[in-house]
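Troubleshooting log. The previous structure file for this entry was overwritten by mistake, so regenerating from the original sequence record. Sequence copied from the archived sheet and checked twice against the printout by T.R.
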Amino acid sequence: MSCRPCARIILITFNFLFFICGALLLAFGIVGIADPHGLTRFISGIPGVEQTSNIIDIPATVVGSAVFMIILGGVMLLFGFFGCVGAWCMAKWMLFIYWFVLVLILLAEVALIIVAAVSPGKVESHAKDSLFTSLKKDFSPVSIHGKNITLPSNVIAVAWVSLQFEVGCCGANNFSDYDRPDFRWNNTFVLDNIGTIDARVPPSCCKLVKAKELPTSTDAFVDLPSCLRGQTAYNEVGCYKSVSELMVKYNYVPIIIAAIVIFIELVAIIAAIYLWKSNDKQKMEIR
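Regenerated output below.
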């Protein structure tokens, strides 16, 4: 019994969903650039987001992530189109491009896993360097106006600030990252009843009364002035170590996700190659 109908159904279904997801991302990205305030109104209508808008500059964040959404959405759209149309029309050249690219992606993933297993020290060193480069390039602290706190508009800066608040870490390696001479950031803050402080660490490194929450007021900190001066009440552990410990604690999650992704890729590759080869057999039978 031929497996061709089953292989076609698998490829068409999987890639149609991939195509739809890519189209939605692309559409959100384009709207985010063309009409960020319109998209903001739509996002703000989602339950729970309205409160978040008090501390996040949503329009600026939408515009900042729009380019990424357009690129990712475009790649997903194109990839899903090749897989879906290739399987539907039995277009040999489209199927070949589809499974060939998938094989390259799978080989790259396997290579990364092998490198991580063989040279964990090099991987750790490279990860720390990459984290600090990202911190140095894109970090911006929260803004303090009176007692109100507002997150930065840059998407990566928001990610760094949120990570430090929610995980309770500071910097890529540790709190001393912010005191390095080659790292300049906006470290001037004005606090009510205290005045101007030239901070040694940002507010996102400061300990909170209620841990693992994004603060909306300066009252949420244990001792904000002492923390900013680098005296007390700040998190000393770096984010790389904190995230690594979380990954070790919940190591089954990335393992399960990686296994599912690799399984889906293998199924798609096998189905695409089967259809690609069966197309030749069908032509030979017709002759």
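Strands lie at 143-145, 148-150, 188-191, 195-198. Archived copy saved in two places this time.
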